[in-house]
Amino acid sequence: MPSHSEHGGHESEKVDASAGFERSDTNVTGVAVFLIALLIFVAVTGMLCYGIGKVINAHLNKEDGPNGKWTKTADVRQLGNMPSSPELQNKIAELTKSFPTPRVQTDDGNQDVADLHARESLLLDNYSWVDRRAGKVRIPIERAMELIAERGLPVAPAVQTPPLLTGDGRPAVTLPLTDGFAPTAYEQAEAQEAAKTQQAQK
């Protein structure tokens, strides 16, 4: 039977663990070489950073040019802490309350959509000025529909369409394209609750 050494392996060395600790000393030379190399690396890196900073500052000073009438080098440390202004703080607080950044929604967006539809309904159902100087007024949509039914829509000139190619067909549009304003489920629920409240009050 071939031995373990014939297969290219080495027998594991037997370790005497009776003492409970290693009998060999630490390689002091390796530790010293590592520390010296680390110090050299830190020193070289610091010198490189210092040199790069000098080069960048010299380039910036060359582009900026010398201090003139409108430029002056100031030591901000001499200014100390700037006094706080209560008026400025109050203005900042008001702006923060009015326009918080970022503006976080308090719900999942249903209220924002409801407010948008309320503003749209306000414009669609009431008279409002478009341009007071020019005398242009926005009229309710119901009144606009009545005027269109009475007067009709302006007739646009006929559009010259090129002849169809072989195999082509004219697109067919199914009317109506839309059924108008559609409130969301959230708005429908709000309207139903409002109707129930009105009935209960009656």
Structure, described:
The longest helix has 37 residues, at 28-64. β1 (128-131) and β2 (136-138) form a beta hairpin. This protein has helices at residues 28-64, 86-98, 110-125, 141-151, 185-201, and strands at residues 128-131, 136-138. With 202 residues, the protein is mostly helical. The chain has a two-stranded antiparallel sheet. The model is unreliable at 1-9 (pLDDT under 50). Among the domains are: 30-62; 107-153, no CATH class. The protein starts with 27 loop residues before the first helix and ends with a helix.
Please describe the topology of this protein.
Elements: H1 28-64, H2 86-98, H3 110-125, E1 128-131, E2 136-138, H4 141-151, H5 185-201
Antiparallel strand pairs: 1-2
Helix run count: 5
What is the N-to-C order of secondary-structure elements (H for helix, E for strand)? HHHEEHH
Task: Indicate the mean pLDDT.
Answer: 78
Low-pLDDT stretches: 1-9
The biggest beta sheet is recorded as: 2 strands, antiparallel
Please outline what is shown here.
Helix content is 47%, strand content 3%.
Label this structure with key terms.
mainly alpha; elongated; 3% strand; 2 strands; 202 residues; single chain; 5 helices; two-stranded antiparallel sheet
